[in-house]
Amino acid sequence: MPPPYSPAASLPRIRFHDLRRAHATHFLASGDLPKIASERLGYSKVGITLDLYSDVMPGMQDDAVAKVDAALKEAQKRR
Fold first, then answer.
1. Which of 55, 56, 77, 79 sees the fewest Cβ atoms within 10 Å?
2. CA of 47: how far to CAs of 12, 40, 44, in Å?
3. Among residues 50, 46, 30, which one has the least CA distance to residue 38?
4. What distance in Å separates the CA atoms of residue 4 and residue 58, rounded to the nearest whole number?
């Protein structure tokens, strides 16, 4: 008779570091402030968070440009 099915046996092994990186990645990708992510991860400075996880935020420059562009267009409409 085979042993009972164990869901845990079918899951890949995940290191704590992988969970931490996934948490930071999802947090920053969702648009939350890097300072908040830095505090949640326990870093003393937000620059550490930005240095370590900036690779997951390549679209942030595009988003920032789009926001500035939209603000400028809105300001021009009001003139």
1. 79
2. 32, 14, 9
3. 46
4. 45
Does residue 42 come out as left (phi exceeding 0), alpha (psi in the -120 to 50 range) or beta?
A: left
pLDDT digits (tens, 9 = 90+) for 36-74: 989 999 999 999 988 888 777 767 777 778 889 999 999
Joined together, the tokens standing for residue 11 give 């899951």
The SS3 call for residue 52 is helix
For the chain, the average pLDDT equals 83
